[in-house]
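Handout, section B. The chain below has 232 residues.
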Amino acid sequence: MPSLFNYQPPQQPWLDIVFADKDLLVLNKPSGLLSVSGRGAHLADSLLSRAQQQYGFAQIINRLDLATSGLVVIALRRKAERHLKQQFAERKVLKRYLAVVWGQVSHALGTVDLPLAAAGNDPPHNHVCFTHGKAALTHYRLLQQLSDRALIELTPITGRSHQLRVHMQSLGWPIVGDHFYASEPAIAAAPRLLLHAAHLQLQQPYSGEQLTFSANSDFVSASGKLMADFNE
C-alpha cells in the first residue's frame, strides 16, 4: 500500500508523457506518486515537482490520490491554467476511469447518485451523508465479470474527494486494493488500489480543439480484459 509514512515513489518512468504542446502537459501518473508535494522534504517528490523541473512553469489542473494512477493535466502557461481550471469547474471535461471491484456486479449499467461528506475528524475519509453531503453522481458500466471481482468503467459527473471509492463501496462493490473502504479479502486481492484514470477529453485552451487522451493501466490488457496478475 502506498503510504505517506513510508513514501517511496516509483522512479521509472520519471515522467510518462501522454501529450505536450506549448500550453498543456498530460501525464500518466503511476500509483504511489503524489500529485503535488506534501509537507516536509521526504514528500517533496511529486508529479508536479517533476514537471516543474523539466518545464519550468507548470501548474496542476486535476489531482489523483496517491494510490490512483492515470491521467493528470498540467498547464504550462498562466492563461492556459485559468482556461483549463474553468473547464473542470464547469464540468466540461469528460473523465472515465477503469476499476476492479470486489463481488458480483448486479447490473451491466447503472448510476450512483449519493451525496458525500467528510467522515467526522478522519480525513481524507468520506461517507454518504444525506444531511450535510454535497451532490455526487457517478455512472458505471460492467466490462468483465469474474467469480469474485469485476472490471468496470466509471464516469464521474461531479468530482468529490474519494467519490468513486465511496460510491462503489456503498453498492457493496469496494474497489480492490482500497485500504480506506474495502474489506480485508478485497484489500489482499491486489498489491495496489485498482483504480486508473484512463480517458480524458477537454478543449485546447487557445484553439478550442477537442482533445482526447488515453493512458494504459498495469491491470488491463490491450484487449480490454483484466491482466492475469490481477485475476483470480
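Note. The chain has one domain: 17-230. Compare this with the example in section A.
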